[in-house]
Amino acid sequence: MGDDPDLAGVMARQRPLIYAHHEGRDLPRVATGSDGPEFLRTSSALLTDAFYSRIGSDRTVDDLVDLCRTDSLVERLVLTGTAPDSELILLVKEAGLQRLVGFLVDEVLFRCEEPVNTTPVDVALEVTHEDELRRTVLRMERGEPIRVLDADDPALVIRRHFRCALPDLVRRLYGPAQPPHSRDFTDVFLPERPADLAELPQILQATHQAGSTLLSGCTTAGPGLGALSVAYGSDKWASFHWYTQHYEHHFARYRDRPVRVLEIGIGIGGYAGDLGGPSLKMWKRYFHRGVVYGLDLFDKSALDQPRLTALTGDQGDPAALRELAEKYGPFDIVIDDGSHENEHVRISFDALFPHVRPGGLCVIEDLQTAYWPRFGGTAGPETAPETSIGLLKRLLDDLHHAEFDPKPEGAPTLTQRQVIAVHTYHNIPVSADRTVVRGGAVMPRQLVEQAGIDNIRPPLAQFTERVDEEDRRGLEAVQRAVGSRYAARGHLSPKEPGVLAFYRSLTHALTR
What are the respective helix, strand and coil percentages of the chain, to the nearest 5? Predict the structure, then answer.
């Protein structure tokens, strides 16, 4: 939020958040100074590409919205990576330093490269906050997983101490992607002289290597999707498929955002005995600020860890999919790598498309099954309308609905209003700007009516089909639309000082 006093004032007024339970979902409420709290729902429907501009210290408007809407401690910790220190201080007071450090250590271990030192080395990661210090001792050795040791064990011989202030470590893990630097931590190398100096060269080399391993986990920077696919054992690259090159092209712009990703299909081959989850780990590492959900027919909850959750459900059950999306969405990216049954593909798309955020992507992999009768496809060179390729053909028609002649009666369908591009690749899902990615195809979308609660949802689509103009006029149009709708429906008044300050600051940030 930087030096913007208006926006800082709005965020200050949003503390503490008062949560109201509405139709099974917790939504943030803000004390407005009027007759009780009102909903302040700055819908991410407003946050198209033009609105992803940075505010102050690399804070996106989407971050502000998410920070107000989530009650997940891990997600809130992620969002403080681009927040003022005051947000993190509040979180420490609420959750405690020890608990937050536990999440951070889990994240560091997940990101660390495999140790290469053949001599075991114990390294201390020390996190400070005000007058508190939390120490975690890690043992690193080639061929072994990194182990967390008892930091109070007097027998430990710690070869290296890395000390970092809590805000600096949070920014290293969840801040904007940028080259790492060495001015935000202190390093004590070999604090004690080895008893046998003949071992010093070996100890020096091993300690150097162990320190490099630790620092590899303390950064937003990471390998590309091809390397991550191979590292975690996913078949999306250099195996049955060659998908990650296209994913990289379309997903790169989302890598630095606090995205929510849903992938259908967890176990390779879809079997109960196969825990699977390689691509879920790949997405978690790639989207260093993201939260990843996987959906499988079988229970794979053993995969659960911070920022990664395995859900159980049937992609052929539209009601279950909608319920899942209401609980865990909205999503920024949805990837269908499930059964590849054509009927399931269509059911999943129809159920989940409305729950993809503005600017989000829907991906469906393995389009080849549209030509395989055993998967509900059509034999021969042309596919039937009920196949996944048939769905793509329909979406291409929907994309050009404005040119239909004669004009159809009635209002445009959801996909006619919201699909703005379709990108196809051989058998693969790829995503492009505000697209839905479909196994071999990507369809950008803008969901301007995604607020999620009917009685407070401003029907912006009735005002304009595309609220994505990268200029002040577009923003002012949104302001007028939101203000008039809320006022007309008796909800949050557009004249409320906090709302005016928010829009004033947002306008300033986007037009300066």
Answer: 40, 20, 40
As given in the structure block, the two tokens for residue 376 are: 């509900």
pLDDT higher than threshold 90 for residue 486: no
**Is 340 marked active-site?**
yes
User: Distances from the Cα of 176 to the Cαs of 219, 240, 338, 486, in angstroms?
Assistant: 10, 33, 32, 34
- Round to whole Å and give the CA distance between 297 and 32: 45
Name the pLDDT band for 25 (thresholds 50, 70, 90): very low
Question: Does 48 have pLDDT greater than 90?
Answer: no
For the segment 135-176, what is each residue's pLDDT rounded down to a tens digit? 999 999 999 999 999 999 999 999 999 999 999 999 999 998
* 231 has pLDDT over 80: yes
Contacts of 296 (CB under 8 A, 6+ apart): 265, 266, 267, 270, 276, 310, 311, 312, 313
Give first-to-last CA distance, the chain, whole Å. Answer: 15
Q: Is the pTM of this model over 0.85?
A: no
Distance CA 246, CA 438 (A): 12
Backbone angles phi, psi at 316, to 5 degrees: -90, 5
Sequence-ordered list of residues with C-beta below 8 angstroms from that of 50, at least 6 positions apart, any chain: 468, 469, 470, 471, 474, 475, 510
Dihedral sign of CA atoms 63, 64, 65, 68 in order = positive
CB 257 within 8 A of CB 289: yes
Residue of 161, 246, 288, 340 marked catalytic? 340
Average pLDDT, the chain: 74
